[in-house]
Automatic annotation (TrEMBL):
Gene name, Swiss-Prot/TrEMBL: aoeh4a
Entry's Gene Ontology molecular function annotations: hydrolase activity, hydrolyzing O-glycosyl compounds
Domain Glycosyl hydrolase family 32 N-terminal: 47-357
Protein's GO biological process: carbohydrate metabolic process
Organism for this UniProt entry: Asparagus officinalis
Xref: InterPro entries: ConA-like_dom_sf (IPR013320), Fructan_Metab_Enzymes (IPR050551), Glyco_hydro_32 (IPR001362), Glyco_hydro_32_AS (IPR018053), Glyco_hydro_32_C (IPR013189), Glyco_hydro_32_N (IPR013148), Glyco_hydro_beta-prop_sf (IPR023296)
Pfam families: Glyco_hydro_32C, Glyco_hydro_32N
Residues annotated as domain Glycosyl hydrolase family 32 C-terminal: 360-555
High-level lineage: Eukaryota, Viridiplantae, Streptophyta, Embryophyta, Tracheophyta
Presence of keyword Signal: yes
SMART domains (UniProt xref): Glyco_32
Protein name as catalogued: Fructan 6G&1-exohydrolase
Signal peptide bounds: 1-26
Domain of life from the UniProt record: Eukaryota
Family label: Belongs to the glycosyl hydrolase 32 family.
SUPFAM superfamilies according to UniProt: Arabinanase/levansucrase/invertase (SSF75005), Concanavalin A-like lectins/glucanases (SSF49899)
Amino acid sequence: MAPSSLLSSGLSWLCGLLFFSSSMFEAPPPENLPNPMVSSEFRTAYHFQPSRYWMNDPNAPMYYKGLYHFFYQHNPDGPLWTANISWGHSVSTDLIHWTALELALTPSRPFDISGCWSGSATILPGDKPVIVYTGLDTVSREVQNVAYPKDLSDPFLRQWTKPDYNPIIVPFEGIDVTLFRDPSTAWQGKDGLWRLIVGTVMNGDGKAILYRSHDFATWVRAEDPLHFTNGSGMWECVDFVPLGEWEGVTKYLLKVSMYNALHDHYTLGTYDEERDVFVGDDASSNDYRMWPRVDYGSIYASKTFFDGAKQRRIWWGWSNESDSAADDLAKGWAGIQAVPRVFTLDRTDGKRLIQWPVEELESLRREKITMKNIELRTGSLVEVRGLSVSQADVEVEFELPSFVGAETFDENWIVDPPKLCREKGAYGNGGVGPFGLLVLAADSLEENTAVFFRVFRADQGYKVLMCADQRRSSKRNELYKPASGGFVDVDIKKDGKISLRTLIDHSVVESFGGGGRTVITSRVYPTLLLKGNTHVYAFNYGTETVKISELNAWNMSQAQIS
Ligand code: DQQ
C-alpha cells in the first residue's frame, strides 16, 4: 500500500479522536487571558491518570503474583495523541493506589517501529503472562505481536521482550492493512487450542476475526469470524468473555468499540464451542444499533480482565477530555481512566450487564453525610451539606409514590435517548421527574452538571430515562458539553424506587443508575470550581412528589497515584 494512504489512515484515526475530544474546539482563549485549564484543579484525585502527558486506551490489565498491572496507551513526550505511541505501566495492590514503572513497550522493532497500539494479556498455564498487541510496522501495516516478561520472578514485570518470530498475525488478503487491530485476551477451547479475536471491517461490516493456535506462536485464521454485524464500520478493542451463569448456561459478553461513533457497545449471548461462534441471545445481537452502550457518556476502548484474587471480572475504560487540543497543551495532560468496575450478569433475569465500582474505592470514603426521608415536592432543591464538592461519592435512593403524572412515551424516542435528554432537559417541568442530583453546582446554579431520571408511561409499562446533562457544566462555550443519556432497564412500577450513585472527581462525574444497569461518565470543567464555591443538590422538577428514602455521601480522600 502506498505510504500516503497509510498515512491518511493513521490520520483518520486521529481525526476521529480529535472529533471526539474536541469537536467543539473553536479557538484558544485570547493570549492576554490566562487559560483556566492550566489549573491543577481539573486533575483527578482518585481516577487513574499518569503524572503528565497523553493517555488513551487501557491495555492488558491483569493480576499477577499479588499485584494488579495496568498498562495504557501513552505518549511519553507530550499531551497529544501520536501514532508512534508507547505503553505506560503502573502497578497496585488494591486498584486504587498506583505506582508508575518504566514504559513497558516502546516502538523498537520492525514489527512495531511505527507504534505499539492496543492489546491484551493472557495468563498461560504455569502462571506465565503474555501480551498480544498491535504493532505498526515499517510501512504502518497493523500486525499482531507477542511480548513476554523478561524475568518471571519480578512481580513488577518491568521488562518485556519481543521475540524475533514476531509478527504472529498479519493482515490477510481482502482487508485494509490499516484496519486490523487490538487483539483480545486469548482463551483455550476444549480441544486445547488457544483462540483470540482481532477487530476489522470488511465492506462496512465490523468483524471479530478468530485465530487459533496450539503453541501461542503460530496462529491460523478460522474460516468464519466469531461474530460480525452489517454496516457497523470498524470494530476496535474487541473483548469476548464469560460474564456469568444463567439457568445453567454461561452467558458471554461481546464488547466492541465502534470506531464510527467512538462508543463502546455490548451484546450478550452464548458461545457455541463446536462451531466456534458467538450466538446472540436474540436478534438484536445481529444489529449493532440495538446493542446497549457500556457507558452512555465519554468512554471508549474499554477492556476487562479476570481478577483471580477476588474471582471477579474487572473493567477499565478510557475517558477522553471534552476540552480542546489547545487546552490539553496548556494543561500538559489529557485522558483519564474511569474507576475500575466489577462486571456481573444481572441476577434477576440474566439479560443485562451490571457495572459497579470496585469495592476498594470505598477505602477512600471519609466524612459521611446521611439524609433520610426527604420529600422532594415539585421545584425542590435540597443541598447535601458538608461535602467537599470536588471529591465525593454520593449514593441516593429515590422512592416514587405516584406515577399518575408520568408523561406519555413516544416510541420514536427509543432510538435516541440523548436527544430526549436534550429536548426534555433537567430544569423544565415534567411529570415523574426530572429528579436527581445537580453536582459541581455554583451558588447561582449558572454552572452545574445535572444527573437525573425521567419516567414515561409507554404502551407496555414505564420507560425510565437517565441523563447526564453537561450543557451548563461550564461557562466556557468552546467545550464539548453534550446531554448524554440512556434508558434504564428496570420495572419501575414494581420496584417503586430507583438508585443513583455519582462519583465526583474534579473534572469527571461518573454516574451509575438503577444499581449499575445504566452508566454515564461526563468530563466537565466548571470555571467556578476554581473559586471553590460549588455544591451538590438533590432536586425534583416533576409534578409528582419524589422521596429520598436515604442518601449517603462521603468526602473522598486522594488516592496515591505516582
Ligand atoms: N487506540 C489505539 C488503537 C485502538 C484505538 C491506538 C482505540 O490500537 O484501535 O492508540 O482508541
